[in-house]
Protein: Multidrug efflux SMR transporter
Amino acid sequence: MAWFLLVVAGLLEVGWSVGMKYTEGFTRPLPSALTIAGIAASMYLLSRAARTLPIGTAYGVWVGIGAAGAAVAGMVLLDEPATAWRIFFVVLLLVAVVGLKATAGH
Structure:
């Protein structure tokens, strides 16, 4: 269950990080409220997962999912460059996430 919560927390991190773009510096009320709610929910689920998982693993996986997901979402939704090097480094992030999970001992 902890891994499931952690993955959902990571996906929420992707959502709120992309949502920050739509807040326009927290000047738009609805996108700002949704972004803040996403941050709170993501942190809460991370804290729940960290009850069982080692914090270094939980935090690393959470950040990795968020960073890779935000990079991909930027390329898909925000017309950011999708160069071969960017994709290569996103894949490296995902390899690191898988490696952390594989070596967590749970």
